[in-house]
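During the second half of the funding period, the structural biology subgroup turned its attention to how the target accommodates small molecules. The most pressing case was C2E, which had performed well in the primary screen but for which no bound structure existed. We therefore specified the complex as follows and requested a full 3D prediction, including the ligand pose.
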Amino acid sequence: MSSLAVQSDEEARLQALVEHDILDAESDPSIAHIVELATRLLGAPAAFVSFVGRNRQVLHAKIGIDLCGTDREISFCARTIEQNDILVVLDASRDLRFHDNPLVTGPPFIRFYAGSPLRTRDGHAIGTLCLAGSKPRRAFTSQHRRIFADLARLVLDRLELRRIEAARRATQSRFEHIAETSSDAIVCADELGRVTFWSVAAERLFGRTVAEALGQPLAILMPDRMRGGHEGDLRRIATGAAAGLIGRTVELIGRQKDGSEFPIELSLSTWTENGRAAFGAIVRDVTQRNMVEERLFSLVHLDTLTELPNRAVLRGRIEAAILDDRPAAVLMLDLDGFKEVNDAHGHAVGDAVLRMAANRLHSYLGTLGVVARFGGDEFAAVLPDIGDPLVAITHGQAVIDVLSEPYTVEGLVMRLGVSIGIALSPAHGISEDELLACADAALYRAKMDGRGRACLFTPVLREVAQRERACRDGLRNAIERGEFVLHYQPQVDLHDGTLVGAEALIRWQHPELGLLSPDAFLEVLDNGPNAAQVGDWVLRTACAQAQAWRDAGLQPFRIGVNLCAAQFHDGNLVERVAAALAATGLPAHTLELEITETIIVRHDPGVVATLQALRTMGVGIAFDDYGTGYASLSLLKRFPLTRLKIDRGFVNGLCSDRRDAAIVRAVIDLSRSFGLQVIAEGVETHEQRQRLIAKGCHEAQGYLFGRPMPAAEFITRFIGAPSVSRLPSSAA
Ligand code: C2E
Ligand code: CA
Ligand code: CA
């Protein structure tokens, strides 16, 4: 805030106003631009600059209000200029100063008002930058005040330039008088480009006294390295030859006497003096202004790719809805499958798809609220006045439909999905941060539930999100601290119970929670940045263990290792497998990699080539959890598999559910006709074992034969006794 005392000399104030030559002027475009920014940044329906004259206020560069001026008597702004600080009236009808004001009781029916005084360097408040609205507001936040003050500063900056320009058009003595009182440096030169006038502000700005400057070439204004280009220009301007630059402002680098540099803005003019050309420049240090502009710019900046508003704008809109006491729905959206499009077709296609998705979002949601890009393939929207969960979900569902339509770019037809998380204000939060966090937690849930869904926030999700965050953080440490371990579950020959393989299964030895099964962390791990790294660790550890068992004299058996999707799209799975085998000495044919449908479906077609290369090396490929997804027959033909693993869900119902029994039979028959081996998972009872044998299945794993166990236990159970048929659980 200005620290200057309020100037009470009304005549001097009016004189200052006149000096700016603005009262009857047309709307100054750069002031109009600032006013427009004010409505956007502060969410006000109306904004303008008011100049308060002797009896009237005149509205300048007005937006959203149909008023040219009013009597000073009733002017809100006349009040504002009497104080140093911003004047905010949240509800004029409840404010004793204004409740019976004709601008409140009659058109334009002002309820909300905010005014920031425009105070010149000499302390004269000549007018205000103000906002108005016909609805009351609940608050004008400290952030709003900061932005508002910044904007008023920009208006003042512009007004000062007008003042000097107006003076330039008056007499020389008047000009020199104004020049001496301005904070802007004024420099004049003769036709040879030699300084003839050097204002007080110029002394300050350039660190040279009048005596030092007079008679010097204009080039002393700028650094040596820039003189070459500009010296000629300046001379030509001074001699009137470069008329094009006159009246324009240009940004340059200024130089102090001590050599330090700073950004300046030059505004140039020429005139004739005693029949000779003369030249003048208004020079201002724009360091401060650049900072203010940068701050404001980042708030209004649009996303360059999609031309949607950015995060800051969206936050402002959510805040505005909260402050206006209106319900609102906040949507977080994340495209499903975008990364694949980008990976497969390149960034140009990816960008085009993003733009199309943004357009569709804007066409659908733009009429209801504001959609913003949050970065990458993430978007968010705020829909004011939507507080009903059903209505919000309906809109979410409609967005899913709109975005699921195919995208055609350069003849390619692509499909994408979108997952949406929704939070409602005020039910789920009363700040932008809270609402966005809730919508984000709901989005996470939506993705976990299988993508392509709209999920409404519930308080339970907050805990889930917190736990997941804790898990994510913990996982990062887990890798560094080596907290992962592998357990091994035996795979047996169903007839005689001999050991034929072991499946490596990951566990997390959590420092506080104890030994965690994959259910507790795998989802988070797979969606995080370390999935491939951990996958690689599993692969190398399991191979090393298998070779150690071979070295220890156990009858040779297979080792099964589960793969995750990240290991495929990291691109060098074949090399990594080869490296693990080479490092441990394990023969390739004893390694069996287990893949699931999610890997196959998400990463076709590169996956086929990768698997083919692995097959060529002699590594086996088992299709895990077979029958649970939509794996088609053609998929079995296209993929170079060696084994199907019957999901334990079907084995579980094998003896009680006819449909499960039919599926188990079908899978066994399928494997036979495709020349694949088969293994049943989750065998827990003798009855299941018998039924499987009867259906022609030869191998199984399950609690009946042994739970997953640490390597040390595995070796004591099986060393020298590779048959597990003697284990108590399998004793008939
Ligand atoms: P999966 O590959 O289908 O592994 C078999 C799961 O069934 C294991 O659960 C195992 O403990 C459990 N199981 C085995 N026999 C029985 C039984 O008789 N009855 C019952 N009810 N369950 C049985 P686990 O170890 O909790 O692993 C869960 C899943 O986590 C695995 O399912 C696999 O998809 C994933 N996973 C485990 N380790 C890894 C790993 O190292 N990498 C990757 N990418 N995924 C892993
Ligand atoms: Ca498995
Ligand atoms: Ca399985």
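Two results from this model are relevant to the next phase. The chain has 27 helices and 28 strands. The radius of gyration is 38 Å.
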